[in-house]
From TrEMBL:
This is Phosphate transport system permease protein. The keyword Membrane applies. The keyword Calcium does not apply. SUPFAM superfamilies: MetI-like.
Length: 348
């Protein structure tokens, strides 16, 4: 007698058991253990491999682009460090108007002005951006929240030259009187000591323009983080008797802290590299000065490159590219620091 057993089939008849075949998903026999889905499994694995290769390629591509930019800056900036000392000295004298004789004497005030203006812009934009993001995500009615979100995203897409035109043609004439009032009442603070620039093409004015420029960027990213706060955490805080502000302080802000830091560093990066708005508004200077309202005290690296490049010769171009390399390093340090801070905050 055969050792193969029999069991009841779907139609009541005997079906051999252990014959090596199973009934497919649609009643068709298929290979054992596949359930008739062999083709689907193979296509899924192929799509997974293709996606993995594309992801690897994208990651490698961005590293190659970063390495190419770094290599370009280093190669083109080498003459500013290794060329004829006399030529380098004359080039620095020409670019600085006789106020610096060496490269680091030349780039130092530019670094100071860049960090000062970008830092002031971030200091003004950050609290306002967080407040707007909280209003859009937790306080505004649904229709108003949607409309404000569209407006914020639209402002983030406006070119910097438009902000520069607005600042040069509207803000500079309109804010001069306010800066005079600030200097008259708060002039005992060194930051606001006079004389006030008239028109107000000063560090304070250009910082306001940059703050308005980076405000939509920080707001947009922060809003997207806040709306992702788990609903259960918010409801749990409210159920324990917390007010809405306490719920935001205990649930929303801790959840989005790393995203808030990333958004602020993104805005700071744009402010550090901004060119046209600064070039159109700021009266350039070449000093280490914290007098925000005075004219001709500071200049940024990006605006200096844009203003000096058209008339620069070979050594001058190399020197300007070397200052661009310094700005590249500053931006890298800012992003690296932000990543470290975000990682530590996210680990808590």
């Amino acid at each position: 007698m055969s050792s193969a057993g029999y069991s009841a089939g779907s139609n009541g008849g005997p079906v051999p058991v252990g014959t090596g075949k199973v009934e497919g998903a649609k009643g068709r026999p298929g290979p054992a253990g596949t359930g008739g889905d062999g083709d689907t499994g193979r296509s899924g694995r192929l799509a997974d491999r293709i996606f993995r290769y594309c992801a690897y390629g994208a990651g490698i591509l961005i590293l190659i682009l970063l390495a190419a930019v770094t290599l370009f800056l280093v190669i083109r900036a080498l003459p500013a460090f290794t060329g004829d000392p006399r030529v380098r000295h004359e080039t620095i004298l020409s670019l600085s108007g006789g106020r610096a004789g060496g490269f680091w004497q030349y780039v130092g005030p530019l670094v100071f002005g860049t960090v000062l203006i970008a830092g002031l812009a971030l200091l003004m934009a950050f609290p306002v951006a967080v407040g707007i993001a909280l209003f859009i995500s937790h306080y505004a009615p649904a229709r108003l929240s949607t409309a404000l979100s569209y407006v914020v995203d639209l402002l983030a897409a406006i070119p910097s030259v438009v902000y520069g035109l607005w600042g040069a043609l509207t803000l500079v004439p309109g804010i001069t009187g306010f800066w005079k009032w600030v200097s008259r009442h708060l002039g005992w603070i060194p930051l606001f000591a006079g004389p006030v620039a008239a028109p107000a093409r000063s560090v304070a004015t250009v910082s306001v323009v940059l703050a308005v420029m980076i405000l939509p960027i920080i707001t947009s990213v922060t809003r997207d983080i806040f709306v992702q706060t788990p609903r259960l955490q918010e409801e749990a805080a409210l159920a324990l008797g917390a007010t809405k502000w306490e719920m935001i302080r205990l649930a929303v802000i801790p959840f989005g802290r790393s995203g808030i830091i990333s958004a602020s560093m993104l805005g700071l990066g744009r402010a550090l590299g901004e060119t046209m708005a600064v070039l159109m508004i700021l009266s350039p200077g070449f000093s280490y000065s914290l007098r925000l309202l005075r004219p001709s005290t500071s200049q940024t690296i990006a605006a200096n490159i844009a203003s000096q490049f058209p008339e620069a010769d070979g050594p001058g171009v190399a020197t300007l590219i070397a200052t661009g390399l310094v700005l590249f390093v500053i931006t890298f340090i800012v992003n690296y620091t932000a990543r470290r801070i975000t990682g530590k905050v996210g680990a808590k």
